[in-house]
Amino acid sequence: MGINAQVFLFSIKPRYAEAIFSGRKKYELRRLNSLSIPRGSLIVLYVSGGTRSITGEFTAGEVIEDKPENVWRTVKKPRTGIGRDAFKYIKGSKRAIAIEVLSPTLYRHPVTLDEIRNIIPGWNPPHSYVKLRQEDPLYRLIIEPLRVPE
Length: 150
Description:
By secondary structure, the chain is of the alpha+beta class. The chain has a single domain, classed as Archaeosine Trna-guanine Transglycosylase, Chain: A, domain 4 (Roll). Helix content is 28%, strand content 36%. The protein contains 5 helices and 6 strands; from the N terminus they run βαβββααβαβα. Strands 2-5-4-3-1-6 form a 6-stranded mixed sheet. The model has no long low-confidence stretch (mean pLDDT 90).
């Protein structure tokens, strides 16, 4: 990964993660606070629910940032893999973002929440997403080794 690449950790429900890794979901929608996701960013997925593990990643392609209604109009086209419940999630926020999913990759060995906490005691996944620095222990000790091909 390039020195200037940005890394984000997203929490995501199992059904949406499965849709991303199967190639059915073409855009990931998020409510937007003040954080911007540049094209080419690495998006690492922590799958919540019964899975509770870091399972894979994708590269951010086209990034659409606008009012929720405008974002929805752009990405609701057939075959984007986004259902109406996604609009309900972003509706009401001041800004929303749609991130094109490129090169979704499942890690060979997902790392569970318990395993993460054995390495980084007290660690908790983000509620939605968080930006990681490459020197962050989560990236350096857990994510980076997952990305090395075997």
